[in-house]
TrEMBL record:
It comes from Circinella minor. The chain crosses the membrane at residues 12-32, 44-62, 147-166, 187-213. The keyword Transmembrane applies. HAMAP family: DHHC_PAT_PFA4 (MF_03199). Residues 309-399 are annotated as: Disordered. The active site is at residue 129. Pfam families: DHHC. Residues 340-350, 377-399 have a biased composition (Low complexity). This is Palmitoyltransferase PFA4. It is found in: Endoplasmic reticulum membrane; Membrane. Keywords: Acyltransferase, Endoplasmic reticulum, Lipoprotein, Membrane, Palmitate, Transferase, Transmembrane, Transmembrane helix. PROSITE patterns: DHHC.
Length: 428
């Protein structure tokens, strides 16, 4: 823990040093001596130093701003309807129950993911960035994007000045003017500064272009991966066509991240909203953000919380069900079909060791299911050409697979905190 803290500090110190190394030696030893008068020097170098200030300022904000943690008030904002297990029809479309983080013991707000480095759920998590020693999430994403943009602009500015200066030196030498001929130390500095600026411009530039694309799509890096997976599932007809719910249009997407006033998009400002609820495209099912992304129906599995959740409800309410699943409670009571799409999915960004341990039986079950399924399909093909449908495949998976709770009878997993709180509230 202490070592990771030290390594994190070393990263931020290294980045600050790199910025200083690119920005200042070139000005002091290469540019200032090259200008003929003070006025030109100021005109050229003041904008550059303003850019450097903006780089440091946005870097500081990206490092220091908490990306967003799930607040305790989130409990009050969860619509009870999303805690109801999805019916078979929706599960066949890859729409699952609410997303749950076992490590934090809380239902995840839409777009929230668990970060194993920060050891907590992060609102609208983009990625964990060692260079800022912080997660990039809802509240510091715009700072991060502005930081990368200012790094690019500042590096481009320095590269243009370096190229202009080298061009002038070569021109002078061609015309036998040796006044501006650089000494050996300056030549080395030219090469080092050019290499550093170009490398940073190239690497951070690619990052910037990707994040600008993400801003225009209103998606995080994780959601980009999820969207690719959803597109694949739709193309293979594993799930029904569904549109990414958070894309609210090119201009509004940018405003959502960078602010409403385009003149201030590059000016540091706090993120609006609470990071718990998000605007969605028109005609979107209001529950979709809580379940997003849809998954391959064959990869869904019974929740490890299901049995205990049900038992707890019965103990508290003497067998009377609290949550009415649209008169569909019988399915819920008799089966282990309370799904969660939280921490144990393939597409989840970070999976803790314990989750990984729990995943192994699921993968074994899937392999076993595929073997049985292939065998069955071959048999069917011999008698009839009709393929197995997705929902029947899902049922087959369940029928072939013992519930996880049976495999882990000693499991300490308990009723989710949020569900408990909702039950308590209902008692009051
Ligand atoms: Zn978590
Ligand atoms: Zn993190």
């Amino acid at each position: 823990m202490v070592s990771s803290l030290v390594i994190g500090r070393l990263y931020t110190f290294g980045v600050s040093l790199l910025i200083a190394l690119i920005a200042y030696p070139s000005q002091i030893f290469l540019f200032i001596p090259a200008f003929d008068n003070v006025s030109t020097t100021f005109k050229v170098l003041i904008p550059l130093n303003l850019l450097v200030i903006m780089v440091y300022w946005n870097y500081y904000l990206a490092v220091q701003t908490d990306p967003g943690r799930v607040p305790i008030e989130w409990v009050d904002k969860i619509p009870e309807s999303i805690l109801i297990p999805c019916n078979e029809e929706r599960r066949a479309e890859g729409i699952t129950g609410p997303r749950f983080c076992k490590t934090c013991d809380i239902y995840k707000p839409p777009r929230t993911h668990h970060c194993r480095y920060c050891r907590r759920c992060v609102l609208k998590m983009d990625h964990h960035c060692p260079w800022i020693n912080n997660c990039v999430g809802y509240f510091n994403y715009a700072h991060f994007v502005r930081f990368t943009l200012y790094v690019n602009i500042a590096c481009l500015y320095i590269l243009i000045l370096l190229i202009w200066r080298i061009h002038k030196i070569l021109d002078d030498l061609q015309h036998f003017r040796f006044d501006s001929e650089p000494n050996t130390a300056q030549v080395i500095l030219y090469v080092v500064e050019f290499a550093l600026s170009f490398c940073v411009f190239f690497c951070v530039g690619m990052l910037s272009v990707y994040h600008l694309y993400c801003v225009t799509q209103n998606q995080s890096t994780i959601e980009g991966w999820e969207r690719s997976k959803v597109t694949r599932l739709i193309r293979r007809k594993r799930i029904s066509p569904v549109k990414y719910p958070f894309d609210i249009g090119f201009y509004r997407n940018i405003c959502f991240v960078m602010g409403d006033n385009p003149l201030l998009w590059l000016w540091p400002q706090q993120a609006r909203g609470d990071g718990l609820s998000f605007p969605v495209r028109p005609n979107t099912d209001p529950e979709i953000p809580f379940y997003w992304p849809p998954r391959d129906p064959d990869e869904l599995r019974p929740s490890i919380f299901s049995n205990r959740y049900h038992q707890q409800q019965q103990q508290i309410h003497g067998g009377e069900e609290v949550i009415d699943n649209n008169n569909n409670t019988e399915d819920y009571v008799d089966s282990d079909e309370y799904y969660d799409s939280g921490s144990l999915s393939d597409s989840d960004y970070s999976i803790s060791d314990e989750e990984e341990r729990l995943r192994q039986p699921v993968m074994r079950m899937k392999r076993q299911y595929r073997r049985v399924s292939n065998h069955k399909q071959q048999q069917q093909q011999q008698h009839s050409p009709q393929p197995i449908s997705s929902s029947s495949s899902s049922n087959l998976l369940l029928s072939q697979s013992p519930p996880l709770m049976e495999q882990y009878p000693e499991s300490n997993h308990h009723v989710p905190l949020v569900a408990r709180n909702i039950i308590m509230k209902k008692d009051d």
